[in-house]
């Protein structure tokens, strides 16, 4: 089963959900804020995709982190910080079970589900 991770009011997540529905792709939506995240999930995403791919350093959440957290942010500290502040994750994060993809572009989803 495909899982789309994000937050329901994010415009990019809305576009991804619309695309999946219009293309009859079955998926489960996992809202970071409502459903939460585990350190194991976050750690596996960092290991598979890389910290720079996962974290949105342009986000309001990043900018609101205290300076110490931002300056010491690395693969060791990131898991706990992201679990506590899940909106740091670039959205949406799609997990097909075989493949993980961050962000949404129509052409990319078309390729993934072709």
- Beta strand count: 4
Look at the structure and name the CATH superfamily.
Glutaredoxin
Determine the strand fraction and express it as a percent band: 5-15%
Number of structural domains: 1
Distance between the amino and carboxyl termini? 16 Å
How confident is the prediction overall: mean pLDDT? 95
Q: What is the name of the CATH topology?
A: Glutaredoxin
Helix content: 40-55%
Q: Which spans of ≥5 residues are poorly predicted at pLDDT below 50? A: none
Would you identify the CATH architecture?
A: 3-Layer(aba) Sandwich
Shape: elongated
**Which strand order does the major sheet show?**
2-1-3-4
The sequence of SSEs as H and E is EHEHHHHHHEEH
**CATH class type:** Alpha Beta
Q: Assign the structural class, choosing from mainly alpha, mainly beta, alpha/beta, alpha+beta, or little secondary structure.
A: alpha+beta
Major sheet description = 4 strands, mixed
The number of helices is 8
Radius of gyration: 14 Å
């Amino acid at each position: 089963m495909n899982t789309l991770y994000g937050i329901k009011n994010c415009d990019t997540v809305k576009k991804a959900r619309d695309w999946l529905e219009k293309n009859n792709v079955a998926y489960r939506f996992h809202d970071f804020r409502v459903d939460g995240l585990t350190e194991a999930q976050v750690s596996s995403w960092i290991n598979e995709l890389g910290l720079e791919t996962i974290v949105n350093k342009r986000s309001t959440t990043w900018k609101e982190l205290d300076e110490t957290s931002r300056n010491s942010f690395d693969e060791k500290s990131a898991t706990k910080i992201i679990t506590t502040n899940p909106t740091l994750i670039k959205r949406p994060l799609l997990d097909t079970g075989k493949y993980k993809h961050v962000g949404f572009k129509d052409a990319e989803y078309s390729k993934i589900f072709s």
